[in-house]
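Repro:
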Amino acid sequence: MNYRQFGKTEMQVSEIGLGAWQLANPDWGATDSNEAVQIVQKSLDEGCNFFDTAPGYNRGKSEEFLGQVLKPVRQDVILCTKFGHSPEYVTDFSVGAIRPSLEGSLRRLQTDYVDILLLHNPPSELMHGASPQYAELEQLKQEGKIREFGVSLDDIDSMKTVLETTNSKALEIYFNIFSQDLATLFPLAEEKGVGLIVKVPLDSGWLTGKYNAASTFDGVRGRWPEEVIARRGALVAQLQAIIPDDQSLVHTALQYILAYPAISTIIPGGKTVAQALENIKAASNQLPQDTFDRICQLWEQELKDNPLPW
């Protein structure tokens, strides 16, 4: 595993982290608690030290699984959790709800601090530094309950606002081969000393190669209408045509993101140990420059002016 500086903070993070939304989560078709524990343990054994979770992931059980495994090595790992959506799936971004939410996360994670606390896709008005939530986050930082704070977000306008108006040192961004527009703000993030965490790096499974235009979906992935599935399938076919024959699509997708020095870590999820370990292997090689260039060209030609719905 390779490690990168998290912005201009003192944290060093593994290039491949673990997104813990899917751990034994029925919403993702996973229910095995033993498998969830093994995913965390095996990731740790392979050098992963960055673990991303949230209170609303599997009604708080995601945090509990992480706490169970990581408590003995707490000083050696980086824990990132969020605020805004409770284990009971209640949305509340009010200032008064921040501290109780964090205290609940600390109990489930079996720790007395988290390294990073993020506003979890808040309303657009809360992206601005004038919002009182940031003063509360600063207070929690002074108390030592959090080391850094920031925002999990999806779009370029939100990212620009947070970078320009807050003291956030962590941003979790929606960025992958099929969604590249936020790259224009990477220089600003570097200038501000902000660590970037990439979520949805495999485009909800499309960049694993297991889906095509004939695929059908239910559950969380049932949101795509037929025309979007057909378009995604066509894009995957185009992508597979430009990558080397001996290169997996999963590794291509993750190595493409790691080609940007501004990125600190990537948090692919995994429902099985095998998936998690396969993701980690991507850090062992770099993407060839010509493949990187072709991927950028594909986005410019097919997606820049006609983006895919998530």
